[in-house]
Amino acid sequence: MSTVKKHSDEFAEAIDGGTGKVLKLLIVDDSKILRDSVTRIFQNDKDVEIVAVAKNGREALAAVQEHRPDVITLDIRMPEMDGVTALKHIMIRYPTPVVMLSSLTMEGAAVTFDALRYGAVDFIAKPSAVNGEDVSAQEGEIRNKVKFASVVEVEAIKYIRNLPNLELMGQDVSLPECHRIVAIGAAEGGYGALLKIVPNLRADRQVAYMVTLYAAQEYVDAFATYLNNYSAVEVKRAVHDELLRPGVCYLNAGGNYMTVHRQTDDNCRLHVQPAPFASRKGAVDMLMFSVAEAMGENAVGVVLSGTGSDGAEGLEEIHRVGGSAVVQDLKTCLYKNMANAALAWCPDATTVSDSQLAQVINDLQ
């Protein structure tokens, strides 16, 4: 099954089998070429009605007030009022799912992650044929993300106010060995949850954190750098054969299998290898199975927002060996499939809102 077809099926499931409701889309971009490009993506889509287009943030605010769209695609760099400023106003006055759409997503990673803090649901690069990129695949991804954004509960979209966490910064993290591992799995919508969790994790414990996030490796690297600037724990990209250290959060892209292997009673080592079947989500399960085997009752598994069911079996295994199983509360998940699947496999898991997850994880230590 193709990724586009699979996501279309999940979208139909997310809207309760298809209610016939047409989602209203507002497109905001200062480039007419790109406004027209995004318009073409949806012009023959019976599920979507483009209710307005705008070329800057001021026009966007007026269009939101007049048309009350279900989803907004919003450029970051625009004259008169940029996308991030417009996003702040939208979230205060007319909370609406927003997908940031910008050619500067890769280079302007910090601005993009700021936008997620201010309430954007997701982000994606504008369609472009530069460097041989597959425009058709990009357009399919834009279509999927807009449709999934339309079923996000507005109550789950909140401004993240807790960065930087100055109370936790500067802690002594010179700990000798790792006695507990927290394995976290996230996919679509996971950025927002991780922005609430990682900066609030305590570093002065004998605990290591391992995060597998379904996103392109470039985005995961940029996200690690961004989080590291706001966190007490050191946040870094997971590197193969590295010795696991307490007080460190290792980020891994879902295209790789990140696992941990015990060497001695006190030492564990990271293994990072390309996933043999990258199109099949399985990296979170692999992570959690390895943590369950290495740590037993000292393993903690956390499943966050995302589509699909990766992590469900791995979380159940952590619970089976006596570890702690935690699932993000469905009410705060931007995409509920992963959390739903995890609870189906592991009904005894603790469910926690995204804003309380860091405290729960800290209390388990």
Explain this structure to me?
This protein has helices at 3-14, 32-42, 57-67, 83-93, 109-117, 135-150, 190-197, 217-228, 283-295, 312-320, 337-345, 357-363; strands at residues 23-28, 48-54, 71-74, 98-101, 122-124, 180-186, 207-213, 234-237, 248-253, 256-262, 268-274, 299-303, 324-328, 350-352. The chain is an alpha/beta fold. It has 2 domains: 3-156, Response regulator (Rossmann fold); 180-363, Rossmann fold. The radius of gyration is 20 Å and the shape is elongated.
What's this, in brief?
This protein is of the alpha/beta class and 365 residues long.
Write the layout of secondary structure elements.
Elements: H1 3-14, E1 23-28, H2 32-42, E2 48-54, H3 57-67, E3 71-74, H4 83-93, E4 98-101, H5 109-117, E5 122-124, H6 135-150, E6 180-186, H7 190-197, E7 207-213, H8 217-228, E8 234-237, E9 248-253, E10 256-262, E11 268-274, H9 283-295, E12 299-303, H10 312-320, E13 324-328, H11 337-345, E14 350-352, H12 357-363
Parallel strand pairs: 1-2, 1-3, 3-4, 4-5, 6-7, 6-12, 7-9, 8-9, 12-13, 13-14
Antiparallel strand pairs: 10-11
Give the tally of structural domains: 2
Please state the oligomeric state of the protein chains shown: single chain
Helical amount among residues, as a percent range?
Answer: 25-40%
CATH superfamily of the largest domain: Methylesterase CheB, C-terminal domain
Alpha-carbon Rg, integer: 20 Å
CATH topology of the largest domain: Rossmann fold
Broad CATH class of the largest domain: Alpha Beta
- List the strand order in the largest sheet: 8-9-7-6-12-13-14
Average pLDDT score: 86
The number of distinct helices, counting runs of at least 4 residues, comes to 12
Low-confidence spans: 1-8, 14-18
Distance between the termini: 42 Å
The secondary-structure class comes to alpha/beta
